[in-house]
């Protein structure tokens, strides 16, 4: 693998403008159309030579073997001795896993049909309680697509801060509210505390049997039953589906309920289309793989420590926080699969916002700052509103102009008004923000994350880094014995006094 890296690092660094002038076919070589999405990598510094070297790197890293292991249900999550079968939820995977996912989807649909038929009373609201992937995915889906349906009011709560729960239920009628508790283990501290408070809110609101309005979404159904949820209201999902990859499973229940089952099926099919593209397209014409090549080039050759994602569409305003967990929890690792040091920077810090707001906040740094920040623009050809079309035209004009300006720059004799240019960006242009294309977009990001991990030789499916803080929080709360540093002891004394003794 060192040979391929040596080739990549030694290649001449040509400016973007020169790459376009030197190759009249650059656009056709660097743009991929797939699943209703245009992926334009032409404003990055990838060249045919770099692409060849990265393909060699992928061969040395056995990216294709890793990819086949993912789809065939092999044990790709070696530290936890399990497969990673989120693609089976979309019909792409080991036959027995696909069959199990389909059966669980059928169970979820039957429950949704019962809710719609009035089996739970006149339900108008759904309160979804989770954290991490158990909340970010459903929240993203409902926020992005909820404007097309509005069948049920849906609120997603993740923060253990009671203010978040209070705000979520502010407009809800307890007797018309269904509570969905999402936890893979059904032991997550923050989720279970929020769940108990939600049950208390139902009771205080006059609901005679609060547990009768609870749905459990979990890979540990026996714990949900122990908690008090009737087994007919437990929607399981497979242990081999990780939290941040779980929106395709029963974790997507609030989206399927709020948007309708047909929308959820279209979401799954869009993701399946991207699964097939990632699995079968040649590496040099494979959108997730090219995106991973771009990521690795800027992180490992150009020293970029961050990657910025800007959604030029209000419907995609939660894309950046969704990707923060997907990318940084998956690939924020420092050791390889065999336990040796990674030897290279792994996941860059993902950050971003929404255009055009971000242009008046952070784009100053992108255009004239000292940091190299690869930028990703995500937009839609079709608008999500019925106002004057000029709104959407101006939105897209600003999106495309920012990418052009980052690349072109502008020299001025006044250094304060000089723009260096040659700053890279990728543009991802959706035909529309609708279930099928959104499913494909999310699956694209999942496979890009996996391709990055394969190139680095790391495991994207564990997250042991989140455990130490949890352990210390439990010890601080009296569950275990740990000694804390003087600063932490003083903070505890100031906030809690003697209440923790």
Task: Please characterize this protein's 3D structure.
With about 500 residues, the protein is α/β, with parallel strands linked by helices. It has three domains: about 1-80 and about 265-455, 3-Layer(aba) Sandwich (Rossmann fold), CATH 3.40.50; about 85-265, Rossmann fold (3-Layer(aba) Sandwich), CATH 3.40.50.10490; about 465-495, no CATH class. The protein has helices at about 1-10, 15-20, 25-30, 50-60, 65-70, 95-115, 135-145, 160-170, 190-205, 220-225, 255-260, 260-280, 285-300, 320-330, 365-370, 390-410, 435-455, 465-475, 485-495, and strands at about 30-35, 35-40, 125-130, 155, 175-180, 215-220, 235, 305-310, 350-355, 375-380, 425-430. Strands 1-2-11-10-8-9 form a six-stranded mixed β-sheet, with helices on both faces. A hairpin with a 2-residue loop joins strand 1 (about 30-35) and strand 2. Helix 1 (about 1-10) runs antiparallel to helix 4 (about 50-60), helix 7 packs antiparallel against helix 14 and helix 13 (about 285-300) crosses helix 17 (about 435-455). The relative contact order is 0.13.
- Any idea what the shape is? globular
Number of helices: 19
Strand order of the largest sheet: 1-2-11-10-8-9
CATH topology of the largest domain: Rossmann fold
- State which percent range the strand residues make up: 5-15%
Within CATH, the superfamily of the largest domain carries the name Glucose-6-phosphate isomerase like protein, domain 1
Q: Report on the biggest sheet.
A: 6 strands, mixed
How far apart, in Å, are the first and last alpha carbons?
55 Å
- List the helices and strands in order: HHHEEHHHEHEHEHEHEHHHEHEHEHEHHH
* Model regions low in confidence, pLDDT < 50 over at least 5 residues: none
CATH class of the largest domain: Alpha Beta
Give the tally of β-strands. 11
Number of domains: 3
Q: Which structural class best describes the helix and strand composition?
A: alpha/beta
Average pLDDT value? 96
Query: Helical content, roughly?
Result: 40-55%
Q: What is the rounded Rg?
A: 24 Å
């Amino acid at each position: 693998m060192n040979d391929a890296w040596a080739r990549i690092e030694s290649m001449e660094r040509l400016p973007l403008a020169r790459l376009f002038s030197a190759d009249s076919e650059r656009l056709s070589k660097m743009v991929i159309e797939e699943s209703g999405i245009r992926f334009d990598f032409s404003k990055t510094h990838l060249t045919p030579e770099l692409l060849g070297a990265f393909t060699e790197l992928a061969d040395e890293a056995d990216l294709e073997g890793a990819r086949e292991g993912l789809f065939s249900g092999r044990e790709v999550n070696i530290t936890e001795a399990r497969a990673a079968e989120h693609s089976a939820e979309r019909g792409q995977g080991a036959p027995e896993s696909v069959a199990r996912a389909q059966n669980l989807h059928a169970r979820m649909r039957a429950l949704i049909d019962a809710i719609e038929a009035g089996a739970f009373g006149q339900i108008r609201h759904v309160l979804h309680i989770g954290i991490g992937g158990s909340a970010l995915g459903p929240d993203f889906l409902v926020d992005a697509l909820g404007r097309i349906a509005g069948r049920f009011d849906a609120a997603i709560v993740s923060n253990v801060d009671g203010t978040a729960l209070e705000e979520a239920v502010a407009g809800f009628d307890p007797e018309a509210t269904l509570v969905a508790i999402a936890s893979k283990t059904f032991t997550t501290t923050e989720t279970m505390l929020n769940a108990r408070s939600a049950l208390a809110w139902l009771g205080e609101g006059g609901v005679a049997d609060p547990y009768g309005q609870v749905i459990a979404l979990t890979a540990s159904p026996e714990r949900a039953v122990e908690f008090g949820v009737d087994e007919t209201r437990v929607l399981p999902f497979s242990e081999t589906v990780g939290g941040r990859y779980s929106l395709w499973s029963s974790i997507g229940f609030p989206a399927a309920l709020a948007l309708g089952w047909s929308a959820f099926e279209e979401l799954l099919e869009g993701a399946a289309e991207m699964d097939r593209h990632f699995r079968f397209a040649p590496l040099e014409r494979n959108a997730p793989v090219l995106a991973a090549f771009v990521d690795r080039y800027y992180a490992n050759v150009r020293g970029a420590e961050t990657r910025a994602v800007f959604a030029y569409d209000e419907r995609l305003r939660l894309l950046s926080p969704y990707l923060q967990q997907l990318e940084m929890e998956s690939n924020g690792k420092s050791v390889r699969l065999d336990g040796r040091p990674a030897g290279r920077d792994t996941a860059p810090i993902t950050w971003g916002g929404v255009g055009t707001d971000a242009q008046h906040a952070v784009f100053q740094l992108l255009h004239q700052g000292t940091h190299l920040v690869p930028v990703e623009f995500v937009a839609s050809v079709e608008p999500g509103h019925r106002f004057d079309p000029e709104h959407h035209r101006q939105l897209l004009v600003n999106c495309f102009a920012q990418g052009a300006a980052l690349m072109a720059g502008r020299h001025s004799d006044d250094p304060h008004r000089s723009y260096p240019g040659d700053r890279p960006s990728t543009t991802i242009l959706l035909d529309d923000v609708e279930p099928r294309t959104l499913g494909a977009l999310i699956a694209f990001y999942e496979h890009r994350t996996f391709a990055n991990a394969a190139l680095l030789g790391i495991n994207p499916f564990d997250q042991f880094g989140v455990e130490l803080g949890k352990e210390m929080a439990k010890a601080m709360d009296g569950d275990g014995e740990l000694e804390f540093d003087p600063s932490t002891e003083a903070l505890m004394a100031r906030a809690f006094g003697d209440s923790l003794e």
